[in-house]
Amino acid sequence: MTMTKEDIKYTGIKVENVAKGKADWYLFNKLCKSCYLCVAKCPVKCLHPIEEPNKDNSELGLFETPVVKPDLEKCIGCGTCQMTCPDCAIKVQRK
Amino acid sequence: MANVLEVKPDLAQAQCAEVGASKFCPGCGHGTILKTLAQVIDELNLNERAVFGCDIGCSLLSWNYMNIDTVQTHHGRTTPVIYGVTRANPGTVGIAYMGDGGGLAIGSQHLVNASVRGENMLILLANNTNYGMTGGQMSPTTMPGQVTETTPYGRDCSITGKPAKGAEMIAAIADPEKSYVARSTMGNVRGLKKVLKAALENVANGGFSFVEVLSVCPNNWRTNNIKTLERLKEMEEFFEVKEFITPAKKEEV
Lengths: 95, 253
Ligand SMILES: Cc1ncc(C[n+]2csc(CCOP(=O)(O)OP(=O)(O)O)c2C)c(N)n1
Ligand code: SF4
Ligand SMILES: [Mg+2]
Known about the structure:
The complex is a heterodimer of chains A (95) and B (253).
Chain A: E1 12-17, H1 18-21, E2 23-28, H2 37-41, E3 47-49, E4 68-70, H3 80-84, E5 90-94
Chain B: H1 29-43, E1 50-54, E2 69-72, H2 78-88, E3 93-99, H3 100-106, H4 108-117, E4 122-127, H5 157-160, H6 166-173, E5 179-185, H7 189-204, E6 208-214, H8 218-221, H9 225-238, E7 243-245, H10 247-252
Parallel strand pairs in B: 1-2, 1-3, 3-4, 4-6, 5-6
Antiparallel strand pairs in B: 5-7
């Protein structure tokens, strides 16, 4: 039996209420390869590699390198990071 | 235990979810191009009609990327394989995906003849200015002065000749009646999406489309995120990003 998209569980991090509560920001850590193209492309430069990643693995990517996280205060929820990510590891969900 | 998130990634229907992360290196342009292609296939509702062929080179790493019928071919032979498929099955939307080496070096004979004949297919060429899979050797599109494995002092055009410009070449020989020819860049994903949409629409209506996408190969370029995007900017200046032949422009004439 083949798996459907709904069957697959994704782990990662959630940053709630970015852009003054207008959006939630998600990162699927098993899709992130830490290329940091999103860091370079973010128009307000609010994304940064996590300096001391969590021990529970949720902050390490596919190759066990640190993933990124936005600065809650600075993020404007524009979705540039989602569009830039070659591996669909980021989702910015507007509410 | 890591958090299980309540949302799923925004994967297109035309993208395989069960294989997990793609096989490309971190930051590779193939991922951006294919993700955009998959979104366009969804939007045009071509999931049942599309057939995807990938070449040898890093494009072959997409053999399980698409959630549509896929065939993996020999180096440079994706073009004839795909137009074989579309000739035998009229109505299919054939997509031949290849690198600059596959399209402009070993497969250039097929590229030339397919464009002159106006085969009903999309040729999608990812130009990363080197032979990515084999370790970053000089390719026909390597830029003047660019350091690669086989041009350690930078490409010297007085010895190697000038870089090939695929889209210009195809625009000069393609049948203007039914062709769409453009060069786009992964640096502008919205622009890329528009170009791919126009290209696939033209193929769905029986035409021939050629799209060259300026892409990146951070692994062989040995560049970090900032330097990768800087190099891409240089490429956008050297290779003109524009639509060379469009079905709309043809109507104006
Ligand atoms: C007939 C044949 N000749 C040569 C090769 C070796 N080869 C494998 S990949 C490659 C270059 C691919 O470069 P490109 O098409 O630019 O794709 P990229 O990896 O850069 O995406 C070559 C020469 C081969 N596999 N088959
Ligand atoms: S070698 Fe280059 S083209 Fe190939 S997957 Fe890696 S980054 Fe992409
Ligand atoms: Mg190449």
